[in-house]
Specification:
Blueprint (H helix, E strand, L loop, with lengths): L5 E10 L6 E11 L4 E5 L6 H8 L7 E6 L2 E2 L5 H11 E5 L10 H11 L4 H14 L14 H13 L5 E5 L7 H15 L5 E5 L11 E6 L2 E6 L1
Parallel strand pairs: 3-8, 3-9, 6-7, 7-8
Antiparallel strand pairs: 1-2, 1-4, 4-5, 9-10
Bound molecules: adenosine-5'-diphosphate and magnesium ion.
Magnesium ion (MG) binds next to helix 1.
């Protein structure tokens, strides 16, 4: 059996010190396998954002080990983490975080431009990505797009570097249920790519049916994993 895409062992995270310390994660272990659409659910303050921030190398755990895509992330220096995030992880958020003065295609091209790809090639690749998520208005500005279209641009931007791991924080919370379903169908097909998986943090019980497994996080511990 191949190594899981994500392998976390006894992750702990304490914010602050002394009296004011908050134990946001209190020993979390989990595995996410290739081709899984893996959900993390739990009440506000249970540690969901902390957990995905650690998996995506944005935040160092206080203790515990985490391997992501075959790499020990605690052994990486900041430069390696930056590169790893850019090349290997696609982020999709509740707020679409598009840059207002840039067109849909320019927004989707941003990760390629950061990597110094030539603009023409970057825009072409971004346009192809937009097409793959059925977003048909590459020249429009974000302000002129619906919520569903904006989320497709954000998905195209997350995909443009062909990352193996896609991490989503409440990807459907700002969408109506029809558009939310479309987004989940896209995420399902992304999870099925070779060597890939998708992690979704959500409160949105309308989309639970898409999960391969659901981990329940409460007060910094996983209380059960369904599926
Ligand atoms: N930067 C921080 N500094 C101090 N406490 C934090 C910080 N970020 C999160 N917390 C605390 O850690 C706990 C878990 O937060 P978080 O991971 O954001 O949970 P969730 O995403 O499930 O709402 C909460 O008690 C929160 O107040
Ligand atoms: Mg959160």
């Amino acid at each position: 059996m191949p190594e899981p895409i994500v392998l976390c062992k006894d992750i702990r995270k304490r914010y602050g010190k002394g009296e004011a310390a908050v134990d946001a994660l209190r020993g979390v272990s989990l595995e996410v396998y290739e081709n899984e659409l893996f959900f993390i659910v739990g009440p506000s303050g249970s540690g969901k954002t902390t957990l995905i921030s650690i998996i995506s190398t944005l935040l160092a755990p206080t203790s515990g080990r985490c391997r992501v895509l075959g790499r020990d992330i605690s052994a990486m220096d900041e430069r390696e983490k930056d590169r790893f995030r850019l090349e290997s992880i696609g982020f999709i958020f509740q707020a679409f975080n598009l840059l207002a003065p840039l067109s849909a295609a320019q927004n989707a091209a941003v990760p390629l431009l950061i990597k110094k790809m030539k603009e023409k090639a970057a825009i072409e690749r971004a346009e192809a990505m937009l097409e793959s998520v059925d977003m048909k208005r590459p020249d429009a500005l974000p302000a002129h797009l619906s919520g569903g279209e904006q989320q497709r641009v954000a998905i195209a931007r997350a995909l443009v570097n062909d990352p193996k791991l896609i991490i989503c924080d409440e990807p459907t919370s700002n969408l109506d249920s029809h558009t939310g379903k479309k987004v989940m169908e896209i995420l399902t097909s992304l999870a099925k790519r070779e060597g890939s998986s998708v992690i979704v943090v959500t409160h949105d019980n309308r989309i639970f049916e898409y999960a391969d497994r659901i981990a329940h996080l409460e007060d910094g511990v996983i209380t059960k994993v369904e599926g």
